[in-house]
Amino acid sequence: MPARDLIDRFGREEDAFLRTEFLAPVAGPGKVRVRIAGIVCEMAVRDPKPGMQVLKPVSMKEAAIVREASRAEAKRYLGLFPRARLVATLLHGGTWMGLSAGAAPKGVRVEGLVPIALASSLRAFETAVVRFDGALFLHEASDRPAEAAALREALARNEEEPSRKGLTAEERAAYARALEFRREMEKSADERRLERALALAGADLSAFEEGHGRFTVSFRVDGRAYASIVSKLDLTVLSSGICLSGRDRDFDLTSLVSVLREHHAEGRDE
């Protein structure tokens, strides 16, 4: 189609669109996407309210809500898109993040945690039946409530592995991710600080004790266990745990790891 004809067609369809109402999911920052003459356009929603809404264009850049879509209208709209299943795993900023609960349909790519839109009724570990409209995973229904309840109870008991039988591999993966996240959030600022310092050099924190402006830190370097004392203020080494000929304070916790590796490679561990 010649460029001029395409421009004329878009202009006609744009004029017609401005006189109509349309249905779209309103979620997140309150923007909707519409297709006009095959071109996807994004519009801001005036006074956005989350949900499946019937809207009317105010301009080509803004729309206003007319009313909430009926259940039948929402069902017809969702039916236009491929269905997938996600396990509700983490709640982030009021939005459920889900892991794939099985093979996604053709054309739908699910990698890692993805946001589930319009899922205010969803509960942790429920399997969300969603429809993917090309941009959003829209919550349609919830499944496996009994399994989800068992997982929530296991998480409350801080179980390493849920004992419930019949759980899917995806549900167990979601549980492991949620448990890891909760334990991370429960860590103190000092523990996270020490972990970060050691992780920069490829070492792992085992445990630590605080006292009199210092930390006694137990950690592992390439599978070998060490214990050192560092300043709480800046993690300067006060006692490395090996012989450094009085040069302990030349290092901090991160740089000490390289020194420990060198000592081990040279067979000088003490």
Structural notes for this entry:
The protein folds into three domains: 3-70, Beta Barrel (OB fold (Dihydrolipoamide Acetyltransferase, E2P)), CATH 2.40.50; 81-184, Nucleic acid-binding proteins (OB fold (Dihydrolipoamide Acetyltransferase, E2P)), CATH 2.40.50.140; 189-265. Helix content is 29%, strand content 34%. The chain is built from six helices and 14 strands. The chain has helices at residues 3-18, 71-78, 145-156, 169-186, 189-199, 253-265, and strands at 22-26, 31-36, 39-46, 51-57, 62-68, 83-92, 95-100, 114-117, 127-132, 137-143, 204-211, 214-221, 224-231, 237-239. The strands form three sheets. The chain has a five-stranded mixed β-sheet with strand order 1-4-5-3-2. Strands 6-7-8-10-9 form a five-stranded mixed barrel. A four-stranded antiparallel β-sheet has the order 11-12-13-14. The radius of gyration is 28 Å and the shape is elongated. The model has no long low-confidence stretch (mean pLDDT 89).
